[in-house]
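Standup notes, protein team

Yesterday: finished cleaning the Pristionchus pacificus set.
Today: Membrane transporter structure.
Blockers: none.

Input for Membrane transporter:
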Amino acid sequence: MLSSLYGRLSPHSYGTLCALMVGFVNLLVFLSYSAHVFTVESVLHSVHERDPDRVGPHDGYYGMAVSNAFYMLSSILIVPSLSNYFRCKWVLVLCSLSFIIYYVSFQYLNRYLYFICCGFFGFSLSAFNIGYSGYLTEFSSNESLPRSQALSWGLTNVSVLVAGVVNFLMANANSGTSSSKYRQYSEGEIRVFFGIETTIAIASVILYAMLPNKEVEGSISHSHVKPDSVNEQIVEMVSVLANRQVLILIPFYLYIGLFFSFWVTIIPTTFQFTMALSKNVYVPIYYGAAFTAGSVTTSAVIMKLSSRIHNLCCKPLMVFTFLLHLSIFALTIAATPEWSTVRPNDEPALLIQPSSDLILNRDDNQIEEFLSSFLVLSCNYARTVISSMVMPAHRQQIFGVSRCYHGMAAAALFFGAPGLSIYSYAAILTVFLIAATMVYLYTCSFLEKQETEEKIDCESHSTYHQQRIAPLEDSDYLYGMLENEELNLFRRRYDN
């Protein structure tokens, strides 16, 4: 019944429906993901203070490092191969099943089980990113892809607001149960929190399985060439890894991994570890609201301008976001205590002092969260668009490679996180930002030049074809003239 309904829709309407549906399911997945990464370091830090033998003081960071290491390996060795045998929506189903295993582990939390299940978490991230990107290409062309991603990803990022509400409710319910100056998580709170996470993951499995499964004529996925054997898959992945344009884009892919990890895990941890903010129950919902407002605004702007500005997600967006990245790094340094990234403290910030009384009224916080959401979405849009343009015939492989470098950068960042201050993060990110911008703009120029040359070749071929046909048409005309002349000559002779 649903298949016949999808068949009657126009490609544009079908693409809009698919983008909305996958965006809604992603909202649920990212609701549990965002609520978890905002708090995982603080949760494990609380468990360590109660029972030092159960988990380490920074196992939250180390667990995220392990997750991203598995994310990196899954992105090049496992998930792209699975996508050659399963449609992308089934890859997303596998993603949610692995999330369930990870969330259940918090009901029996100990160090060794946690690190093992972090491997499943890393696989889930890889399956989600590659499956989601691949699913978009099943109903999107190169022209409609930015709009489809803006629509679905804008809806997905409402999850950050909902995650903030969930964290607020949990914090408010337990606000009077701890005598500590900093945010502490009780055993009961952890069990309830991750029980809710598990329930959401189960719902996402069902909803992913119900996604439409029809490819649209002219979509990007039609240009994808599937290998016939495992050996061909390995050769294909190696060829993508060794591709010149992919190698050039490595700093860009690394930077996205660094920036995303910094903003969704490190910055929320500084809220938990800064004494002036850690006991304020409104901080999570405030963070989520500001982030969501920026995400929805960004999606609306890109949807509106993508049809008016050619290749919006290439040079124009990258130049603009480069300036915004520098601005937000300066703001972060000014408003964050130096070592709130690592331990609970009451140290002053460089210029703008944190205050729980003014948290809802401070313009610097509002601007910081709004801009961060714009930059996170912009980086995701840019990565998907540039990857699909560089090697459209190997879309799953290049999506996997881009996530591989993302995971590599994030794993390195989290392994070093216990020794990095907010100033160290700003310095590392700035260096990679400059390199990422340079290689991205170079790749855009190369692709534009390549597109221009292809158009010239097509026009030259068309002109050559016309020049070959024109003499034939002229010869037919002359042949007809000769026939008429011979017929007239015969008639004159017959009359005489």
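Follow-up from PR in the comments: Residues 422-495 form the longest helix (74 residues).
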